[in-house]
Amino acid sequence: MKITVVGRKVNLRDNFKGLVEKKLSKFDRIFDEDAEATVTVTVERNRQTVEITIKQRGLIYRAEETAPEMNDALDGVVAALGRQIRRNKTRLEKSKKVQPNFDLADTYFEEPDEEINVVKTKSFFVEVMTPEEAILQMNLLNHQFFLFREDEDGEINVVYRRRDGNYGLLKPQNK
User: Fold this and answer.
1) DSSP string computed for 101-123
2) For residues 63 and 49, what is the distance between their CA atoms, to the nearest angstrom?
3) Alpha carbon distance 111, 85 (integer Å)
4) Parallel, antiparallel or unpaired: strands 47-56 and 59-67
5) Which CATH superfamily does the domain covering 2-107 fall into?
6) What's the DSSP call for residue 98?
7) Region(s) of the chain under CATH 3.30.505.50
8) φ, ψ for residue 135, nearest 5 deg
9) What architecture (CATH level 2) is domain 128-170?
10) Sequential DSSP letters for 10-73
11) Which helix (H) or strand (E) holds 93?
Protein backbone atom coordinates (compact mmCIF):
# COMPACT_ATOMS: atom_id res chain seq x y z
CA MET A 1 0.00 0.00 0.00
CA LYS A 2 1.27 3.45 -0.90
CA ILE A 3 0.97 5.81 2.08
CA THR A 4 0.98 9.60 1.83
CA VAL A 5 1.05 11.62 5.07
CA VAL A 6 -0.04 15.27 4.90
CA GLY A 7 0.04 17.84 7.71
CA ARG A 8 -2.29 20.83 7.74
CA LYS A 9 -1.23 23.63 10.06
CA VAL A 10 1.42 21.29 11.50
CA ASN A 11 4.87 19.96 10.64
CA LEU A 12 4.82 16.22 11.18
CA ARG A 13 7.81 14.46 12.68
CA ASP A 14 9.36 11.40 11.10
CA ASN A 15 8.55 9.26 14.15
CA PHE A 16 4.81 10.02 13.70
CA LYS A 17 5.05 9.11 10.00
CA GLY A 18 6.76 5.87 11.00
CA LEU A 19 3.98 5.16 13.50
CA VAL A 20 1.38 5.73 10.76
CA GLU A 21 3.14 3.24 8.50
CA LYS A 22 3.38 0.72 11.33
CA LYS A 23 -0.34 1.05 12.21
CA LEU A 24 -1.46 0.81 8.58
CA SER A 25 0.82 -2.17 7.93
CA LYS A 26 -1.76 -4.41 9.62
CA PHE A 27 -3.97 -3.79 6.57
CA ASP A 28 -1.26 -4.94 4.11
CA ARG A 29 -2.74 -8.44 3.89
CA ILE A 30 -6.13 -6.96 3.06
CA PHE A 31 -5.20 -4.40 0.40
CA ASP A 32 -3.04 -4.83 -2.71
CA GLU A 33 0.19 -2.95 -3.15
CA ASP A 34 -1.61 -0.66 -5.63
CA ALA A 35 -3.92 0.62 -2.87
CA GLU A 36 -3.38 4.25 -1.90
CA ALA A 37 -3.72 5.55 1.66
CA THR A 38 -3.81 9.26 2.39
CA VAL A 39 -3.36 10.32 6.01
CA THR A 40 -4.22 13.95 6.74
CA VAL A 41 -3.42 15.47 10.14
CA THR A 42 -5.00 18.81 11.04
CA VAL A 43 -4.23 20.75 14.22
CA GLU A 44 -6.67 23.41 15.40
CA ARG A 45 -6.29 24.91 18.87
CA ASN A 46 -6.23 21.99 21.30
CA ARG A 47 -7.74 19.36 19.00
CA GLN A 48 -5.93 17.21 16.54
CA THR A 49 -7.75 15.43 13.74
CA VAL A 50 -6.43 12.45 11.83
CA GLU A 51 -8.24 11.43 8.65
CA ILE A 52 -7.35 8.31 6.67
CA THR A 53 -8.67 7.51 3.20
CA ILE A 54 -7.78 4.22 1.53
CA LYS A 55 -8.60 3.77 -2.17
CA GLN A 56 -8.37 0.51 -4.08
CA ARG A 57 -10.10 -0.42 -7.35
CA GLY A 58 -13.10 1.82 -6.85
CA LEU A 59 -13.52 1.02 -3.15
CA ILE A 60 -12.98 3.88 -0.73
CA TYR A 61 -12.60 3.51 3.01
CA ARG A 62 -12.49 6.72 5.03
CA ALA A 63 -12.42 7.45 8.73
CA GLU A 64 -11.71 10.52 10.82
CA GLU A 65 -10.99 10.93 14.52
CA THR A 66 -10.36 13.99 16.69
CA ALA A 67 -8.56 13.90 20.03
CA PRO A 68 -6.38 16.16 22.18
CA GLU A 69 -3.32 14.05 21.25
CA MET A 70 -2.33 13.13 17.70
CA ASN A 71 -1.42 9.54 18.62
CA ASP A 72 -4.81 8.97 20.29
CA ALA A 73 -6.57 10.28 17.18
CA LEU A 74 -4.45 7.93 15.05
CA ASP A 75 -5.39 4.93 17.22
CA GLY A 76 -9.07 5.84 16.99
CA VAL A 77 -9.08 6.30 13.23
CA VAL A 78 -7.25 3.00 12.63
CA ALA A 79 -9.82 1.23 14.83
CA ALA A 80 -12.68 2.89 12.91
CA LEU A 81 -11.17 1.79 9.60
CA GLY A 82 -10.89 -1.73 10.96
CA ARG A 83 -14.61 -1.73 11.78
CA GLN A 84 -15.46 -0.48 8.27
CA ILE A 85 -13.31 -3.13 6.64
CA ARG A 86 -14.88 -5.80 8.83
CA ARG A 87 -18.39 -4.70 7.84
CA ASN A 88 -17.47 -4.71 4.17
CA LYS A 89 -15.19 -7.74 4.09
CA THR A 90 -17.24 -9.57 1.43
CA ARG A 91 -16.97 -6.67 -1.00
CA LEU A 92 -13.28 -6.36 -0.30
CA GLU A 93 -12.67 -10.09 -0.74
CA LYS A 94 -14.44 -10.02 -4.12
CA SER A 95 -12.39 -7.00 -5.13
CA LYS A 96 -9.12 -8.65 -4.19
CA LYS A 97 -10.26 -12.15 -5.15
CA VAL A 98 -9.07 -13.59 -1.85
CA GLN A 99 -9.43 -17.34 -1.31
CA PRO A 100 -12.76 -18.13 0.40
CA ASN A 101 -11.07 -19.73 3.42
CA PHE A 102 -9.26 -16.47 4.26
CA ASP A 103 -11.36 -14.86 6.96
CA LEU A 104 -10.63 -11.23 7.76
CA ALA A 105 -12.67 -11.51 10.94
CA ASP A 106 -10.38 -14.12 12.48
CA THR A 107 -7.27 -12.28 11.37
CA TYR A 108 -7.97 -8.74 12.56
CA PHE A 109 -11.31 -7.92 14.09
CA GLU A 110 -13.84 -9.37 16.43
CA GLU A 111 -17.09 -7.64 15.60
CA PRO A 112 -20.33 -9.48 14.75
CA ASP A 113 -21.52 -9.49 11.15
CA GLU A 114 -23.92 -6.68 10.36
CA GLU A 115 -26.56 -7.03 7.70
CA ILE A 116 -27.33 -4.03 5.55
CA ASN A 117 -31.08 -3.54 5.35
CA VAL A 118 -32.81 -0.79 3.41
CA VAL A 119 -35.80 -0.11 5.63
CA LYS A 120 -37.30 2.82 3.76
CA THR A 121 -37.32 4.15 0.21
CA LYS A 122 -38.37 7.70 -0.47
CA SER A 123 -38.98 9.44 -3.81
CA PHE A 124 -39.30 13.17 -4.28
CA PHE A 125 -38.93 15.90 -6.86
CA VAL A 126 -35.40 17.37 -6.97
CA GLU A 127 -35.63 21.17 -6.91
CA VAL A 128 -33.30 23.50 -8.83
CA MET A 129 -31.52 25.83 -6.39
CA THR A 130 -28.19 27.18 -5.18
CA PRO A 131 -26.19 25.38 -2.46
CA GLU A 132 -27.06 28.19 -0.04
CA GLU A 133 -30.79 27.72 -0.70
CA ALA A 134 -30.37 23.96 -0.25
CA ILE A 135 -28.68 24.51 3.14
CA LEU A 136 -31.54 26.75 4.24
CA GLN A 137 -34.08 24.12 3.12
CA MET A 138 -32.12 21.37 4.91
CA ASN A 139 -32.11 23.40 8.12
CA LEU A 140 -35.84 24.11 7.83
CA LEU A 141 -36.49 20.37 7.54
CA ASN A 142 -33.98 19.64 10.34
CA HIS A 143 -32.19 17.07 8.16
CA GLN A 144 -28.49 16.14 8.10
CA PHE A 145 -28.32 16.27 4.28
CA PHE A 146 -30.34 17.57 1.34
CA LEU A 147 -30.41 16.51 -2.32
CA PHE A 148 -30.91 19.23 -4.96
CA ARG A 149 -30.19 20.13 -8.58
CA GLU A 150 -27.49 22.81 -8.97
CA ASP A 151 -28.86 25.90 -10.72
CA GLU A 152 -25.58 26.57 -12.59
CA ASP A 153 -24.94 23.21 -14.24
CA GLY A 154 -28.11 21.18 -13.61
CA GLU A 155 -26.17 18.38 -11.82
CA ILE A 156 -27.58 16.54 -8.81
CA ASN A 157 -25.67 17.65 -5.67
CA VAL A 158 -25.94 17.02 -1.92
CA VAL A 159 -25.32 19.44 0.93
CA TYR A 160 -24.72 18.00 4.38
CA ARG A 161 -24.06 19.11 7.94
CA ARG A 162 -20.59 18.17 9.19
CA ARG A 163 -19.81 17.11 12.74
CA ASP A 164 -17.93 20.37 13.30
CA GLY A 165 -21.11 22.37 12.54
CA ASN A 166 -20.02 23.51 9.08
CA TYR A 167 -21.52 22.35 5.80
CA GLY A 168 -20.22 20.19 2.98
CA LEU A 169 -21.19 19.96 -0.69
CA LEU A 170 -21.01 16.72 -2.69
CA LYS A 171 -20.73 17.16 -6.46
CA PRO A 172 -20.60 14.34 -9.02
CA GLN A 173 -17.34 13.87 -10.87
CA ASN A 174 -17.35 12.61 -14.44
CA LYS A 175 -14.61 10.19 -15.40
Assistant:
1) T--HHHHT---------------
2) 11
3) 11
4) antiparallel
5) Ribosome hibernation promotion factor-like (3.30.160.100)
6) -
7) 128-170
8) -65, -40
9) 2-Layer Sandwich (3.30)
10) SPPPHHHHHHHHHHHGGGTTTS-TT-EEEEEEEEETTEEEEEEEEEETTEEEEEEEEESSHHHH
11) helix 89-96
Report the share of the chain in percent with pLDDT over 70: 85
Mind listing the pLDDT tens digit for each residue in 148-172? 999 888 899 999 999 888 999 999 9
Alpha-carbon distance 89 to 105, whole Å? 8
Cβ contacts of 161 within 8 Å, gap of 6 or more: 138, 144, 145, 167, 168
Angstrom distances, CA of residue 165 to CA of 47, 85, 160, 162: 15, 27, 10, 5
CB neighbours of 122 closer than 8 A, spacing ≥ 6?
Answer: none
Burial of 39 (0-12, 13-18, 19+ CB in 10 A): buried
Amino acid at 29: R
What confidence category does residue 142 fall into, taking pLDDT thresholds of 50, 70 and 90?
confident
- pLDDT tens-digit series, residues 6-58: 998 888 899 999 999 999 988 888 888 888 999 999 998 889 999 999 888 77
> What size, in residues, is the chain?
175
